[in-house]
Amino acid sequence: MKKLIYIICLCFLFSSCSSDNENEGLTPVDETPNALDLDIPEIFSNNIIPPVIPNDNTQTVEGIALGKRLFFDNILSGDQSISCASCHSPQNAFTDNTPTSVGIDGVFGTRNSMPLFNLAWNYNERFAWDGKELSLERQALEPVENPIEMHSDWENVVNRLQNHPEYPELFRLAFNTSTITKELAAKAIAQFERTLISANSKFDRYSLGQETLTSQELNGLDVFLREDKGDCFHCHGNPNNPLWTDNDFHNNGLDTAFTDLGLGAVTGDPNDNGKFRSPSLRNLAYTAPFMHDGRFATIDEVIDHYSEGLQNSPTIDPLMKNIAQGGVQLSAQDKADLKAFLLTLSDPSFLTNPDFQN
Amino acid sequence: MKKIFVLLFISLYFASCSDDDNNSGLSPASTTLSFSHNWNGTPVSNADFNTIQFTNENGEMLSIERLRYLISDITFTTTSNEVLNLNNYNLIDLTNGTNLDFSLGTQIPPGSYSNVSFTFGFDNEDNSQNYLDLNSASFNVPDMLGGGYHYMQFDGKYIDNTNMEANFNYHAIRAVDNPGMNPTFPQDTFFTVNLGAVTVSGDTTLNIEMNIAEWFTNPNTWDLNQLNTVLMPNSAAQIQMYQNGQSVFTLGSVSQ
């Protein structure tokens, strides 16, 4: 009887081992991507609502790593000569330093490359200067096929990625499939872009009680906030909205007539002509030139515009003051102070964060 | 063993059904505040924005380009003078057509109420709190102007007395003097809007109407040539807004 029981036990043992081996051969070991929540800065969690993370594209370690690899890889462009980072360089707070950007054919576009940071806090999820991209995932699809940017097509890019020695495995790790699609590539890029968080400026540390501002910087903040001086805060945030943008669309008095309709070309509503998204005022030290077409080379030129250079047009925002006089008429001292304050919103650690380097 | 589980499941199911039935008999109705807007009786929606088509009491033609405002502290007062105070708030944004309907859910027991009210803006205590959603909507008032939040942001254009288009920013806040490190407050400029008696029976929607023209009318005939922009640090203008605001809201229909 003992022998019989022994034999039965051995049979179970071997059948069990055999079964496990067979499973390993047929089914990959479960490698669910590892969730990785965004590291939300204290200055944000203290003041503004949580970021927007789509339910169908939650952040994972593997997805972010893949997105970063794709972001810096020339493989996305038609002749494999440029990457996303060519126009969105970490050293320039993920923009470049030309008024508009050049694509693979040497042709310049019509818009200034927007800096990339704190994108997950764009609550309306309208991206680009004109709001035409309704999510980060959709935005990531566009430059690849834009004829004056990467001038490629996704079918070719997907084929390249699929035949690459490493990408199929990276997609499998990120999305549990090694069948690559443009949608998965865009999801990965969007995941990486959502990690680009900038919240360690001098002013952030001042807000957290960790640093002091000079009297000139404080006076500049006063100019920024005063309705009878700069009145910048209605469109560009305030110490309680540390995004330093409302992410909304305004005609800020650049032109009397429009060569670029901006939001109006997207909505088809003439009341939106000449409106562009307010950019964040963070990292101005690294993101010149300014405006949607990069027309202003310096912060001084931007301040001069709002002070004396406003141009009237039918859709100019009512928040623009003293249009007939050209603007808010700041003194030379107020301009200098305002500039000093604006520069406290720049975050040098954002440029050197190792997580954001190639 | 299976039989035990099946019996347990059935017992739980029926216990659950029984609970639900009891609750549905006692559940208060759902109540919604629905905000609509008009110009002296002519309905106004965001489709009417951006066109100079309204004439104020002073005779100035104007357009509306942005209109959003805050209401808070909704109360329901019973006929025995018990006050149900809902410590809530809602940012109504006519520009984007958002939050025009504010659901109070099932917080209001059915019955007759002698008055329903809300606060236009925030009272001073509420105004001193930190609201992440309002910060995210850039509805703040700078600290040197007393801090807290706008009560209303109403922007547009008007034809001035030289027949030119000009901008106005009719921004209501807590009236403030001596802007700076130590601002002072001459008088409160939030106000209570009393809507009157309401009966709640079944799901109820209170249709609240804002006559936008009233902001320019009563008791102060508003002259946009004099008061157009930079009104936040102008306490006299804020007090006039407060006075004119008293007649802006009325209770329209109550639908059940």
UniProtKB/TrEMBL annotation, chain A:
It is found in: Periplasm. One of its GO terms (molecular function) is peroxidase activity. Residues 62-165, 215-346 form the Cytochrome c domain. Residues 1-21 form the signal peptide. Keywords: Heme, Iron, Metal-binding, Oxidoreductase, Periplasm, Peroxidase, Signal. The keyword Iron applies. Its main location: periplasm. Gene3D superfamilies: Cytochrome c-like domain. It comes from the Bacteria. This is Cytochrome-c peroxidase. It comes from Winogradskyella haliclonae. The gene is mauG.
UniProtKB/TrEMBL annotation, chain B:
InterPro entries: MbnP-like_dom. Residues 30-229 form the Copper-binding protein MbnP-like domain. This is Copper-binding protein MbnP-like domain-containing protein. The lineage of its organism: Bacteria, Pseudomonadati, Bacteroidota, Flavobacteriia, Flavobacteriales.
